[in-house]
Amino acid sequence: MSKSRWLVVALFCPFVAMPMTSGAQARDSVKADAQDFVHDVLHALVRPNWNVSAHGGFSAGDRFVLQRADNTIDGQRALEPATGYNVGIGAGVDILLRMGFRANYTFTSSNLNFKTDDGNGSNALNINDVGTIRTHTLALEVMRYMLPSRAAITPYGTLGIQARWWVLDENSPFIRTNGVTPFALGPLFSFGMQVKASDRWSSRLEASLSSGHNPFTGKSSFRALSGPTIEESSSVSRTEYRVAGVYYFGKAKTAAVPTPVAHK
Are 191 and 206 in contact (CB under 8 A)? Predict the structure, then answer.
C-alpha cells in the first residue's frame, strides 16, 4: 500500500472511532442513569419516607339519567346526586425529592333527587330524597410536587386510576337496585396544596376529579323508573373537595450548613 493510502486510512480511522466511542459512552450514561434511578427508588422504599393520611370533605357529581315524567305528563326530569360527603384513609411514599406514590380508600354518600329539567326554571316535577347512593373507591396515584415534598408549602398534582363500587339504598318506587353492585374503573387526577405543620405532620387541601361507568347504564345496573328514558350517558364524573392530615414516619432532611474556614 502506498504512503498516500496509509495517510488516508490514518486520517479516516479517528472519525470512525469517535462515533463508536460516543455511542458507547451514551449507552453507558443511559445505563448508569437507569441504575441510579432504580437505586434511588429502592433506597426510598426501605427508608422512612412513608406516610399515612386521613381525609374528609364533600362531593358533587353528574346527573345519571334524563327521563320524561311519565307517558301522560309533559315535561322531563333528571336523576342526579345532591352534594354529599366523603371520608377516607391513605398511605404514600416519596421516592424522589419531588415525586411519590399514594394509595387511597374513599367512602362517599349522597342523596338522590329528581330535578325538573324543562329549561324554564320550573320545579313542578321535583322529587327529593328518592334514595341514597354510596361508593367505595380504591385509588392509586403518582404524585408530583412543585417543590420538595417536605417544603413548608408546596403545590402538587396527581394522576392515577381508581376502582369504584356503587351501592344504592332505595327509598321510593322510582329507583331499583336490581340486586347488583355496579363496578367502574376509570382515570382520576388531583391538584392541591400541602402545608408543613411540623417535622412529622402536614395538611393538604385538594380537589380530585374522576370519571367512570354510569351505574344506571348497561345490563348490570340500577334502574330509574320515573318514565321513559330520554338520555343516559355511558360515564359520569365526580369532583371531590377534601382536607387531609398527613403523618410522616421520617423527619424532613435539612441541608447541612457549611463550616466556615478560619483565615489566618
Answer: yes
